[in-house]
Amino acid sequence: MYFGSVKFFKHLIITIIILAILVPTGLCVYLGIQNSQKSAAINKLEAEISSFRQENSAAFDDPEALFELYRSVEDKEAFLKLVSEYDAELYEQFVKSVPAMNEVTTSSSATEAPLTMETTTTASSTATTESVTATASETTAAVTTTASATTTAATTTTTTTTTAAFTTTGSGGQASDSEYADLYPELYCGSTAGVTYSDDKDYVYLTFDDGPSKHTDSILYYLDKYNLKATFFVVPDGSEECAKRMRRIVDAGHTIGVHSATHDYKQIYANVQAFLTDFKICYDRIYEATGVKCSLFRFPGGSINDFNEETRNEIIAEMTRRGFVYFDWNVDSNDAGGADWTEMYVGVLGQISETNRAVVLMHDRDDRMNTVLVLEDIIKALLDDKRGYKIDRLTEKTKPVQF
């Protein structure tokens, strides 16, 4: 009898060994081809830039002449990356000073993304408030838009009977025995007991920390291009430019949440009062800019980090008592660690494939151009995947991913 015999197990072992060799080898070959194709495109652009500079040495310092080259190349994102690496000052001048930049967004094909919102306007943001002084009606519109988007999102998924278990609270989410009850008494968002979560199997939640930044508008462009919603955990600096970008996030129907006002770990996690103070500043800046009273937040560094070991449990208990919900992540793009295009693309898609639902950590920061470069490729891969992934924003109906 063959099955169960020594010969059977010998063949089984040989097959396993062969697979153990062939599968990693095949994966390496595939990734090598992908990387080679990307490198070839970049090398081609490098050659074009070098040739253009040699033939037009004076014109290379002219943003308008450089813009003409930008319009002619096929891989515009790689071109921008090369320009930024070649000469950061020229890159900044290029994306901010070319009068014709608006024209490329409105007249070119749908695959051409804007560089930054300072110089471009997408179809989804034409109704965005651009005035430095927002009127009362504009603020009201932002709140109405957010409420409408929340209602729509709540009806797009089938609810399950899974119920959240939170600390028992009193009226309005307040517990009378908390020593912090009198600290920022207005900083409550009601009880979270009895929340029924949405059924979100095969959902992917793209989240962006640390913004807004000069890349916020490019991120919004790609999300709008595919009619997707995401979540932004922001670090508002109190400036009007920051406020305008936050309004664009909200007006586009995305979720905005509290991250931090300072992002200073030692200061934030010193004690519960320090955390609440930082949280309140961030919360107020979001509300003043958008009219949104946030109920979702993300701990700087995640709920478990090297700076909050002694205070995290007390902070979590107090924030839960106040009705706020925090989200960690189960997929890390490692863009904060400097991951390149290939590392982010392979890493994010690989991690998502191993989860039933994914909360993806990405960053919206001035120094994270790679996040913008890889974002559309990740989106397209997810939408084309046979699992039928659905990309959406986090809400109070989303079961939190927590460390």
Overall description:
The protein is globular. It has helices at 6-55, 63-72, 76-86, 88-97, 101-107, 136-155, 216-225, 240-251, 265-268, 272-290, 312-321, 341-353, 369-384, and strands at 159-163, 196-198, 203-209, 231-234, 255-258, 296-297, 325-326, 331-332, 358-363, 390-392. Strands 3, 4, 5, 8, 9 and 10 form a six-stranded parallel β-sheet that branches. It has a two-stranded antiparallel ribbon with strand order 1-2. A two-stranded parallel ribbon has the order 6-7. With 403 residues, the chain is of the alpha/beta class. The N and C termini lie far apart (51 Å). Residues 97-176 have low confidence and may be disordered.
What is this structure, in a nutshell?
The protein is 48% helix and 9% strand. It is an alpha/beta fold.
Q: Rg from C-alpha positions?
A: 24 Å
The DSSP helix count reads 13
How much helical structure, as a percent, in the residues? 40-55%
Got a strand count? Answer: 10
Shape: globular
Order of helices and strands: HHHHHHEEEHEHEHHEHEEHEHE
**Are there runs of 5+ residues with pLDDT below 50, and where?**
97-176
Largest sheet: 6 strands, parallel
- β-strand percent reads 5-15%
Distance between the termini: 51 Å
Averaged pLDDT, please?
77
User: Which structural category fits the helices and strands?
Assistant: alpha/beta
